[in-house]
TrEMBL record:
Protein name per the record: Phosphoribosylglycinamide formyltransferase
Species for this entry: Allobranchiibius huperziae
Pfam families per the UniProt record, alphabetical: YjbR
InterPro entries: YjbR-like_sf, YjbR/MT2646/Rv2570-like
SUPFAM superfamilies: YjbR-like
Lineage top rank: taxon: Bacteria
Length: 130
């Protein structure tokens, strides 16, 4: 059974996030489990769906799931906007709530950058640095 679509293409947060994520070398988007997913060879970001079993929450629909650098994880968890998401949390992923105040888009890009660097092939990371 296919997952229902759990996002709105007209969502301004998604549009802004999509622009940032797809600016990375060879980044692509697909829908997985009803959510926008950004990847190269591996996924580097998800939009929404971060609490186990609570797939319909409007608040959770506006979360960025990312894979941070291990040395930044503890500091990120001190931020009230960040939590350990269901399913992906045990693998080191974190979620940033984008629904509160206007997101700091420079911070969002930095989080995407760190996650991209952890998942993308070396050749793409080299292109990013060039």
């Amino acid at each position: 059974m296919a997952h229902p679509i759990r996002f709105d293409d007209d969502d301004p947060l998604l549009r802004r996030l999509r622009g940032l994520a797809l600016a990375f070398p060879e980044a692509q988007e697909k829908v997985a489990h009803g959510r926008p997913t950004f990847f190269t060879n591996k996924v580097f970001a998800y939009y929404g769906g971060s609490v186990k079993g609570d797939h319909g929450s409007p608040l959770l629909a506006h979360a960025l799931l990312f894979l941070p650098d291990a040395d930044e994880r503890a500091a990120l968890l001190d931020d009230d906007r960040v939590h350990v998401p269901a399913y992906l949390g045990p693998s080191g992923w974190l979620a940033l709530d984008l629904a509160g105040a206007e997101p700091d888009w420079d911070e969002v890009r930095e989080l995407l950058d760190a996650s991209y660097r952890r998942t993308a092939p070396r050749t793409l990371v080299a292109r990013l640095d060039a």
